[in-house]
Write a structure and sequence with these properties.
335 residues, three-stranded parallel β-sheet, two-stranded parallel ribbon, binds adenosine-5'-triphosphate, binds L-tryptophanamide
Length: 335
């Protein structure tokens, strides 16, 4: 029987956070043995908000090295850079023509980001979810591991696949999100009502996968809690709830177990232990990352092979799409 397909992507819009890791990246390697996997670094998405070109280039390689350091195996998964496969932008164009403005207007990530970057809102930020649908549908993905914040975008990708299939005949697989019940939305350490985000201007709001031990320790110590001085997991103590979620995600202990463990203990002891857990989890990743990031030749080899493999599959889908919408096939001699 044919293997099912998994696809996901992360933007190289900054250094990756513990939220990116718990919500998305740490799940990626779990699929490698049973599924045909495609993991991309979505640089076309990243330029929908202002980027400094040399930082974008650096962050793209950093995300690639972190993919590998977190266990992605290039012999099993296709790992590539989105802008190397031109089919993404081309399918996005076709999908734009079957997307309703009203649907895009309802997207909460667009609303949030347009508020945040109110001086430089561009059309790309508005059509961002259509490009994401193209990423997914080009590879006929069945499953898309993401954090909770991407659920609405996944719904749009499904909707566009169904609409295209109904209009032109069966073309795309209908993708499902893979979102875990714990850890799918890690919140800011400074404001537990908003999600931890790599583009937060407050550095204390997030932990980076590449933060050193002291920084991790300090950031956890400074994380906002409350004055109840009692360890519990509820919606009144949101800061603490978020820290317990992080603890639970990294240890596989249930939240009730953690509350029980710290019953007669203070926040200080809980935070010390949590910082230790995060440091122990990130230490091997950072070690492997350091080796990889200094080997530019190896990284180039990985993304070159990835681009060739990805393009093969993407082109196959795009050719079908172009034919179905009525474009004249390109003659062999100019392919
Ligand atoms: P930006 O701040 O630039 O918008 P981001 O940190 O939100 O970026 P993305 O690159 O857009 O991250 O997301 C990559 C993956 O990480 C997505 O699957 C997303 O759902 C997941 N993710 C991002 N932030 C969190 C979080 N705080 N908790 C859980 N998952 C997250
Ligand atoms: N939109 C996602 C990043 C992203 C993605 C994808 C995730 C772009 N294309 C395809 C999964 C599949 C985000 O903002 N986190």
């Amino acid at each position: 029987m044919d293997k099912k397909t998994v696809l996901s992507g992360i933007q190289p819009s900054g250094s990756l956070t513990l939220g990116n890791y718990i919500g998305a990246l740490r799940n990626f390697s779990d699929f490698q043995n049973e599924y045909e996997c495609y993991y991309c670094i979505v640089d076309l998405h990243a330029i929908t908000v202002p980027q400094v070109p040399k930082d974008l280039r650096k962050n793209t390689l950093e995300v690639l090295a972190l993919y590998l350091a977190c266990g992605l195996n290039p012999d099993k998964s296709t790992i590539f850079i989105q802008s190397h496969v031109h089919e993404h932008a081309e399918l996005a164009w076709v999908l734009n023509t079957i997307t309703y403005m009203g649907q895009l207007n309802r997207m909460t990530q667009y609303k949030d980001k347009s508020r945040k970057y109110n001086e430089s809102i561009n059309a790309g930020l508005f059509t961002y979810p259509v490009l994401m649908a193209a990423d997914i549908l080009l590879y006929q993905a069945d499953l898309v591991p993401v954090g909770e914040d991407q659920r609405q975008h996944l719904e749009l990708a499904r909707d566009l696949a169904i609409r295209f299939n109904n209009k032109y005949s069966d073309t795309f697989s209908i993708p499902e999100p893979f979102i875990r019940s714990t850890g799918s939305k890690i919140m800011s350490l400074q404001d537990p009502s908003i999600k931890m985000s790599k583009s937060d201007p407050d550095k204390n709001a997030y932990i980076l996968l590449l933060d050193d031990k002291d920084t991790i320790y300090k950031k956890i110590k400074r994380a906002v809690t409350d004055s109840e001085n009692h360890i519990d997991y509820n919606d009144r103590q949101l800061g603490l709830k978020n820290l317990i979620d992080i603890f639970s995600s990294l240890t596989d202990k249930r939240t009730e177990e953690i509350v029980e463990m710290y019953q007669n203990k203070g926040y200080g002891e809980f935070k010390d232990d949590l910082a230790e857990i995060i440091i122990d989890c990130l230490e091997p990743i950072q070690r492997r990352y350091k080796e990889l990031i200094s080997d530019k030749e190896y990284l180039e080899k990985i993304y070159s092979i990835g681009a060739i493999k990805a393009e093969r599959k993407a082109n196959n889908t795009l050719r079908k799409v172009y034919k179905k919408v009525g474009f004249v096939p390109k003659p062999d001699m100019i392919k």
